[in-house]
Amino acid sequence: MKSPFHIMIIPTLGCPSKCHYCWSSDETSPKMSIETVREITEWLKDYRSDQVTITFHGGEPLLAGAEFYRQALPLISGELAHLKPTFALQSNLWLLTPELAQVLAEYRIPIGSSIDGPEEITDAQRGKGYFEKTMRGYEIARANGLEVRFICTFTNRSVEEKEAIFNFFLERGFPLKLHPALPSLRSEDPKEWALEPEEYGQLLVYLLDRYLENLGRIEVMNINDLCKCIFTRRGTVCTFVDCMGTTLAVGPDGSIYPCYRFIGMPEYVMGNVRDRPTQEDLAQSEAWKLMHAFKEYVDRECAGCSHIKYCRGGCPYNAIAPTDGEVRGVDPHCIAYKRIFDEITDRLNEEMYGSGDMEMGGFGFPPRKGAKPGIMSILRTMATK
Ligand code: SF4
Ligand code: SF4
């Protein structure tokens, strides 16, 4: 099955927030002009013929302002009508005004935002006042009918507070999507905030247990995705598929990169939208070749791993950006992926073929009375949504 086509538009790398562990903002970054948006639509018209999802990402994409979206959204929707574009936005919401919210609501744009748990924990790692400003934007979004989901970044410090963080999401009724803090390539101490892979693996198992204890009261998106990967035997998020070519990002000046994570790193520019490159043209770039080399490396190095089909070596950015573009290993989070994939597989096998007090059976069978919820319950909950 072909992976969905995803274009990320990065209107600027600037951001008003100063999160301590952020590696992707740049105060000197220019802002994308509407002319560049027009170039993007001209390029995409003939690039691929399947449905496209367009995510506005940053930096902080709302820095582009209401007028940018008022022009860009109808332009893209109209010019690319044959690709049936759907939109998404990743923002800290500080700059969301009722005016901007109405523009986004017209296109029913789902928003991903970021909150790292209770106010003290969020502000300790994202800067004082972050929580309040984001929640203010959240209220404006909700008042205008916009759907907001939060990503929670766990650092090596906040992981100590995992219980308080989980309870925060549970009590507020927010779905939880976690993101492990990555080493910052722009910092003198890249690992200052980074979550170590072993800790990340333990955190995923902890969240699996808490999720099962509270099934029906919270959704832990990562656990859903991981269970789906194992059950369907294929990756269901970009980290666990060969993302090259199905995900691309366009920076403020129209440069094309493999993903938003590479924006601002000139060595990963694959072309520019104004030149209307075809897939074959982009495949000639060094960045594309590098991503392809990563795929071949995974085929070789992960050949003996039982999870290769739905892991695919993890995220190529995590693997190659810290080594200055040399393919020397798979995603360092491999340890965490193995840990949680093993855990879910073992539990699923136990539920389906073992005995004990876990529920058994497939989708067609109701859970056994008194049985503890297990992986099948998560799959069943997802199937009924
Ligand atoms: S480089 Fe990583 S984050 Fe970017 S699309 Fe690929 S897997 Fe996803
Ligand atoms: S879990 Fe590790 S070894 Fe297995 S496929 Fe993923 S990255 Fe490769």
Automatic annotation (TrEMBL):
Residues 294-325 form the 4Fe-4S ferredoxin-type domain. Keywords: Iron, Iron-sulfur, Metal-binding, S-adenosyl-L-methionine. Pfam families: Radical_SAM, SPASM. Gene3D superfamilies: Aldolase class I. Transmembrane segments: none annotated. Belongs to the radical SAM superfamily. Anaerobic sulfatase-maturating enzyme family. NCBIfam families: rSAM_more_4Fe4S, rSAM_pep_methan. This is TIGR04083 family peptide-modifying radical SAM enzyme. It comes from Methanoculleus caldifontis.
